[in-house]
Each structure stands twice: as C-alpha cells, then as structure tokens.
C-alpha cells in the first residue's frame, strides 16, 4: 500500500531541537534546518522555507490504514485473546472501505496472519504495543523546493518523539522506532521532530485549524522544557496549521493519555466540532464538557468562521469488572483495579474512505443514539458500529489503534 507516488524517497531529518527555547516562538519555529536524502543517496540541506508540510483532515482520501497487533499482557487481559478478537472486527470493518496493513511482532506474526482476512497485509515488525495513532507516523503532504528538480510534492511522515505517554509504561523502545520503520516500508521521506507528541493528542480540519488539550500537551511529563508558545509554533510548523485551539481538559478519567483530544472532541468538517457530552451534573464529565463548549463557542477557526458544536452523548458509566482485572497479568493487575471507570467515548471513531467506524459498548440504547448523531454529522458516509469494550479496557478505542495514510490530491 503506497500512500502516494513519491518523487523523493529517503529521510528528512531536523537538525536541532524543534521547539528549542529562543527569543520568541517565531524564532524557535524558524531556527532549524532539514536534510533530505534522495534515492541516489545525495543529501540536501534545506532551509525552513524550502519545505512546507500540511496535515490533511482525516476525511481526506486515504491510500489505506495502518494498525498493529496487540502484544502486551499487562494491557490486554487473558493474554490478549479478547482484544485481538476486537481488533479483527475493527480491521474487517475498515477493510470494507480501504486497504489495511497490520504490523505484527515477529514472535506472533503467524498468529496475526492466520487470524486476518487475505485482503489485509501483515508486516513483520518489532513493536511494544498497538496504539499506532500515537507511535506511528503522522503522514502529511509535503512540498520540497530549492532542489535540483522542480518543486516536489510528496507524502512525508512526521516522526514525533514518543515517550510512552509520559513514561506510563517502562518499555517503549521499539515503539519509538515504529514511525520511521513504517516510512521505510512505504518508502516515504520522514521528518524526525525532537518534540514529544502522540497523534491522538491532535485533530485538524484540513483548513488550518488544530484542536488539542492543555491537559496533555502542557503536561510536564511530555515537554517540560518547552513553553506553550514553543509547542504551538512546532505544531504549526510540522502540521501546517495557522491556528491552534486549546481545550483545557480531555475526557474525564482518561488518565493513561492525560486527556487526548481524540477521545473528547474532533472536527466533523471544517467549522463543525463533535464534542463528548454529559448531562449528569454529578458526573465529573459534566463540567469538563461545558468548559470545552464555552471555549469552542467563543473561538473561530483559521478561516474566521464561528464553530458549530455537535454534542455526542457519552455512554453510561462503564467500569472494569473483577474478571477483567483478574485476567490481566501480574503487572497489569498492579496498575489497574476492579471498579475503575473506563474512559469510554463515542468520539473515538475513525474515518476510512466513505465510512465511519464507531465504537460500541454493548449498550443498545446508548450505542444507537450515538450512531444516529454520527449519521447526521456524516450524511455521505456509512456508519459501522464495532463492539470495542476490550479495546477501551486497554485505555483507548478505534481512533487510537488506527493511523491513516493520506493520498496526494
């Protein structure tokens, strides 16, 4: 699966820290240079103005989707079997709309290959876990100029620095390499950015606006030496946006990710935001959702448009059962507990070509209500619900385990 026809194959590497402190955020965003390695091995040093990166919205046409086969038994109960079954259903649902590639650890590649349909590509690759939204590359559209050739338009992988959600897990060395490995498989140039960021912490509208949360990106366990202005400057540089909208917090109880935006709010289209909503005044989510609504109601997007907000009701409170806790391994049981609230949200959906893959939780009334909201928000797409309780038990959902490969226009 090739995300696009490339004229340049190789690596674009930032020389210097992406968000290094400087006299101003503008200086920080223009101080680095880049090196492009061409197919013939020649390297070109390019100034900031010679490379322009633009992150497409998720509804931009895809060449396909990348996912990863679950591996960690401290995250996935019963040695991962229930989670793998849920992943298979998500993969099957997405493959109705576009090609899917799954990376699998060499030790279990055969198991993944046997479990997945023939139309799904399975690539052997070492990795620590399966949250490819966060460890995989953010594939953007790049324009490279000042080369021996005319201006080159190509897909480019952004390889953010990954630190395991602020060192949440002790082992993530292989996940730190996944983004560049995927780019190598797809023969994509890539930019290595010396700033910690997970893909689930940002959403873009494709027209210059980015959504994120202060709870995550300003958490000292991510980039403690960077200011908010420096982080914002780096976001603008490597995604091509011109405006960043900061929501104070993410979903209540989303403690693993420190409030990723993709579990709380996202763009349905330019100027329209879907927001996880709660009407129970006794629920911590009640105040968080209303605070976010206040921010969104007074903001405009990069084009100057007032934002329309669609409320997407959260499911009823879901908690971890005794059996779900007992079937984790010893490390997992030490980090989880029976009765803990799950960070369940219907916002954590994915947009393959022509479709919406939404999480469902075995709650007929709530699941159906969420599906109706999504069908109204995406009238030209087919909404497919997949039961993903086993995924949310691991700390995420459909959007967290997927990574799109956009096509060049």
UniProtKB/TrEMBL annotation:
Pfam families (UniProt xref): PAD_porph (PF04371)
GO biological process: putrescine biosynthetic process
Signal peptide limits: none
Molecular functions per Gene Ontology: agmatine deiminase activity; protein-arginine deiminase activity
Domain of life: Eukaryota
Alphabetized UniProt keyword annotations: Hydrolase
NCBIfam families membership: agmatine_aguA
The name this protein goes by in its record: Agmatine deiminase
Source organism (scientific name): Raphidocelis subcapitata
């Amino acid at each position: 699966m090739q995300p696009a026809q490339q004229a340049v194959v190789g690596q674009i590497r930032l020389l210097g820290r992406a968000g290094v402190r400087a006299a101003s955020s503008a200086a920080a965003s223009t101080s680095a240079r880049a090196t492009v390695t061409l197919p013939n091995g020649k390297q070109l040093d390019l100034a900031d103005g010679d490379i322009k990166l633009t992150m497409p919205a998720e509804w931009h046409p895809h060449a396909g989707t990348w996912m990863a086969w679950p591996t960690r038994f401290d995250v996935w109960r019963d040695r991962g079997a229930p989670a793998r079954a849920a992943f298979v259903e998500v993969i099957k649902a997405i493959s109705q709309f576009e090609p899917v590639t799954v990376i699998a650890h060499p030790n279990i590649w055969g198991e993944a290959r046997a479990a997945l349909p023939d139309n799904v590509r399975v690539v052997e690759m070492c990795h620590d876990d399966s949250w490819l939204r966060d460890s995989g590359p953010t594939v953007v559209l790049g324009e490279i100029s000042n080369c021996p050739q005319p201006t080159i338009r190509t897909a480019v992988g952004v390889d953010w620095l990954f630190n395991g959600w602020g060192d949440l897990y002790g082992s993530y060395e292989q996940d730190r390499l996944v983004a560049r490995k995927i780019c190598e498989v797809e023969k994509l140039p890539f930019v290595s950015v010396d700033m910690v960021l997970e893909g689930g912490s940002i959403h873009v509208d494709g027209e210059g606006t980015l959504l994120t949360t202060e709870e995550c990106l300003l958490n000292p366990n991510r980039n403690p030496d960077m200011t908010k202005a420096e982080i914002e400057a780096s976001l603008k540089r490597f995604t091509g946006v011109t405006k960043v909208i900061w929501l104070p917090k993410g979903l209540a109880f989303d403690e693993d990710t420190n409030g990723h935006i993709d579990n709380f709010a996202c763009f349905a289209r330019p100027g329209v935001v879907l927001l996880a909503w709660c009407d129970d005044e006794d629920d911590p989510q009640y105040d968080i959702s209303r605070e976010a609504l206040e921010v969104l109601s007074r903001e405009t997007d990069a084009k100057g448009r007032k934002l329309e907000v669609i409320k997407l009701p959260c499911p009823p409170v879901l908690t971890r059962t005794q059996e779900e806790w007992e079937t984790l391994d010893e490390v997992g049981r030490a980090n989880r507990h029976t009765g803990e609230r799950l960070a369940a949200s219907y916002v954590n959906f994915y947009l393959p070509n022509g479709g919406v893959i939404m999480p469902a939780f075995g709650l007929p009334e709530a699941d159906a209500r969420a599906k109706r909201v999504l069908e109204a928000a995406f009238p030209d797409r087919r909404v497919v619900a997949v039961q993903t309780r086993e995924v949310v038990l691991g700390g995420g959902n459909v959007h967290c385990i997927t990574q799109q490969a956009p096509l060049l226009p």
